[in-house]
Amino acid sequence: MSEKPFCIFVVDDDALLRLVIVDQLQGHNYQIHEFANGADCLAALDLQPNLILLDIEMPGQSGIEVCRQIRAAGNDEVQVMFVSAHDDLEILLTAFDAGGNDFIPKNAKKEVLLRKVELAIETEQQKRNLRSQLDYARQTAFTAMSSLGETGAILHFLRTSFQCRTPEQLGSLIIDTLPQYGASGLVKLADAFGEHDFGPEPVCSALERSILTYVTKLGRIYQAGDRLVLNFPHVTLLVTGLDVNDPDAIGRLRDHLAILVEGASARMEAMVSEQQRQLQTKVRLESIRELNALLSEIERNQQANHVQLVNLSEQHRSNMENAFVHLGLTDSQEFLLHGYVDELTTQLDQLFDKDNQLALRLHQILEKQHALLAGGEDAGPT
């Protein structure tokens, strides 16, 4: 119950009855006002009574009519307890239809009157408690709906972040998501090629970049006044302009943004892994190209050496045939020497053929590996 005393109006044209009722209510810290008619009672409603003990049968306006006017004026909180010598069903139904809350017969015992007043006080307290519970329920429902909306924004961010292929796309997505929480801020993303800063404007100023560099040295989650910093691997988020008068909202925002930044961190980790894979693939491809170039050079040298050897063999054969004429060799001797030369030429050809076959097989293997690596490079990031 509030600190204000429980206010009771006693309305009856019978002064003696009013005196009796007031006397019975004395000593209970009630604020009591007496009225001889309904008009005076209606004129004093700005005193905000908690309970009106209202006689039904009065000259001029009856208690029933007074009650109707009280309710018609929007005074639904005040309790009206009718006081009458008549308690037949028709009068009771009319009284309650007019907006009455209770009924007590005239000349009722003091214990009955006091118990009725206590019940009225308990009823008012119950209404106050119910109103408080209703306000709490409404606030809880509002908070839950707000939280659902904020959670929905997080889910949308996470789904959309899967489609981001570059830090620029992810940084812009984070900046665009912050206004859904009534916030704004700055973002720093780090990948295999360096750092990328993002803010509400297309290009971050030198001061904004300096601030982002500084806050990366703070803890995982750091808050000072209306500023909130979240540091995760590859991602730093600085949020400004928090409502310091609403700590519950700041708590929810901190939880939601922590999930957002953690999701962005996971996406950046995937990007960094893909960048490193592409760098490794590029290095391997360059090595394959160098090997292919070297192999091609070896093949060309082998072919040139083979042609030169054939020419030398033919030249050597011709020189020997010319020499045979002057040496005076027999046919058997010439035939024997020709056989030596032919055998040597044949053996050299076989060696070159084996070398060419090995070089061709190696070239084919390298070509296949080059094709596989090139295909992986063209696939792009996942």
From TrEMBL:
CDD domains: REC (cd00156). Residues 7-121 form the Response regulatory domain. Gene3D superfamilies: 3.40.50.2300. The modification 4-aspartylphosphate is found at D55. Keywords: DNA-binding, Phosphoprotein, Transcription, Transcription regulation, Two-component regulatory system. This is Response regulator transcription factor.
